[in-house]
Amino acid sequence: MSNGDTVSAHAEVGDNLLRVAQAAGLPLEGTCEGQMACSTCHVIVAGEWFDRLEEASEEEEDMLDLAAGVARTSRLSCQIDLTEEMDGLTVTIPAESYDMRR
């Protein structure tokens, strides 16, 4: 998979975005196993969706400070639990993430 590919994935309400992305074969590691000790599941949320998410915790913001390719709408996918209001949520994996996993 290369940067710029589009992947659609089915998810149910309550699913975690990281698990959905991994099941779809996307290169998000999430190696901290929920302990908020890494930023390997960093995604950039499309602007029109960003305000629909719950605010990032202080711990998440600290982890994003360590992530490559951070944007104003960056989040950790492991911290996003999907709701009905997020049907159609669009995120991008930063190009830097693809480079680190080659």
UniProtKB/TrEMBL annotation:
Domain of life: Bacteria
Chain ranges of the 2Fe-2S ferredoxin-type domain: 1-97
Keywords, sorted A to Z: 2Fe-2S, Iron, Iron-sulfur, Metal-binding
Name of the molecule in the record: 2Fe-2S iron-sulfur cluster binding domain-containing protein
Entry coiled-coil feature ranges: none
Cofactor: [2Fe-2S] cluster
Family: Belongs to the adrenodoxin/putidaredoxin family.
Gene3D superfamilies linked: 3.10.20.30
SUPFAM superfamilies noted in UniProt: 2Fe-2S ferredoxin-like
